[in-house]
């Protein structure tokens, strides 16, 4: 597997620590070659200590701190000059990865994958910045432990001893947590409550993503890559990018990779081949039931799907539904959400951007339509076929086939996204919202 | 990271499939170079189809099948001759990994790690055989879907498209699921019910592990490596190995790696160093509150712990408790079990056996005491310091320090394990059980 070549645009490597214990002083003075350079931090208030030793003793936050930071956690309050140590001096510069919804099930899988090195490579040290939920904010009124609903996962990350994981911090203010973020993985979103209309869901989540867009615009790396997982993810991504005018709109993604993976699996099952034989799979449009898994351009063993699966009825009538219903089957039959496979698909989505796309293949991701060659409406977030050189950026694939069936399906998803856009106009700075949404198209299992 | 060099002792690579669809026949006849060799399987009854196409259509099981097999799942019912394809011809022979408790939270993390290649390496194809729980057995009375409580995780594994994962099968009979197993990861165990005495827990889980030991003895690879995670894991491992006389007792492990990892983290926190600076950490004894995290032999930056942490009171009175209580803190404070970090520690335990131990270091694992150099009672499963050449085997580390404090703590854990052994004598073939267990020593959060 090729190693990620993506070089972050801003350095996050700082030397800092909250440590000045007597034991450590003794230790440092008793060794002739101290491996660490230590200085007092100026943002050392710690909310989530789980042990009572001096490493985590609270220190007053200096009010003249020019940059707000989330609170570090436990052993991760230590950060070293990686270049000063033999075993880490060949590593890349540390990257900052911010994750919202970090106390949830998807993040519970994803954070360990990020920390293990399997996403960004074995020489890429990583800082994880966890954004707390609204529950955390409410709990701020005095209850010290509960304010840190991400402390449990941070504690498990500590116990996992991942060598590449050099920093874990937790905060509830996106303006702190997104500081210098080079990747923002936005998983957290409000689920739909009983009786809530789709417009209500768009509004309540839209507000979260508007706020997070503003925060990214203010404090994140100027080339931050944003992957929106929280649903409705396409329109959430649109709201987010509209609120972050100083960050390239191109850098915002809505996750449709799980749909792509599921579509490949269903074609493989039908054709009787292993799933690694399916390539060039596009998910077009919205991450909803109007999504279009494209069997016209997909290939099986290099052959067009229709040459291998000669059952047009199945392709046109059953295939798409099978892809959409996977999440619902999981929930209904086994009472489990697709957390693990969603996390895998986020890993796939990141890897597709930081490793060169194999010759002749492509991947799907929901991106901003700005000069697309397919005749899709501009100024929405639409899943389309993309290729990457492995630098974190991508380009649209231009030589795809279109037929009437595909075009009509794409049009339906486009119409839906345009309606969603009108419904969140108050959040994108484009006037008064008008909600004329078509029927409910949330994917089963993703309410 | 070094790549696993462990070569499995028996081949599990077979060519088989349940496929003979008309589409596939058309496909194969329409291509001049078929990549797969297909033949009908003789064990093709499938219980867990989640789609309705012909790939998963039930086929009568032949009654003269000489070897019972678990049921394959979905796309994994296809198995190929890996050597016949360009991209897989350099891969190692597929290994069979059997996992019990595969519907639980620990396995939900572990299975995806196994499938991704991060455990056994990027050129090691893998077959996962999932052992269903008693709930599955009960559900066998006619309810087709519920009988497969592992089908949900199998479906998510399908959707993850792991190239190395070539087979997933599900069964409820260990004599089927352990067939040719080269690794058996025994996670499943009964939790203690309300009012259940520890002796009752030992008995009910001991019976499960006696049965699984017999099954391993009958059908697993003659050099299978067994890692027992289900608690009480030391005595479960002893029962298992006693019921598998044809498999080397040396091959059975009780997982104490999470304790080792936690101990390293706590020493790092206290010393104010990153956890990768802590080495030579031994957990002695039972995976219970009598466990002995060894600060006499552990090192920090190559120095003895006592040279770095000059707080003997903390080391003797607080350190061990901090290690033990991590799981309890997670449960009590955040309502989460340590599933993710336990799965990471299983990965660490396997990697420690399939990669050479770094020079001068060691790892902890609960193994059969047979000629140990520490004066610990023979014929129990006791966690001790071990090294490996990376061939799946290990040797005990001999040059460790002992002092009165360490010896007295080890003695207490030894006494406990000897008492547990007397309490399961009916399951190890050593006569009538006598339960004179000391007080309750289950770890918090592991009831």
UniProtKB/TrEMBL annotation, chains A, B:
A biological-process GO annotation: malate metabolic process
Domain Lactate/malate dehydrogenase N-terminal: 96-253
Keyword Oxidoreductase: yes
Catalysed transformations (reactions): (S)-malate + NADP(+) = oxaloacetate + NADPH + H(+)
Pfam family, one: Ldh_1_N
MF-aspect GO terms: L-malate dehydrogenase (NADP+) activity
Major subcellular site: plastid
Record keyword Iron-sulfur present: no
Keywords of this entry: Chloroplast, Disulfide bond, NADP, Oxidoreductase, Plastid, Transit peptide
Entry's EC annotation: 1.1.1.82
EC category name: oxidoreductase
Subcellular location: Plastid, Chloroplast
Cellular component terms (Gene Ontology): chloroplast
Subunit structure: Homodimer.
Protein name: Malate dehydrogenase [NADP], chloroplastic
Higher taxonomy: Eukaryota, Viridiplantae, Streptophyta, Embryophyta, Tracheophyta
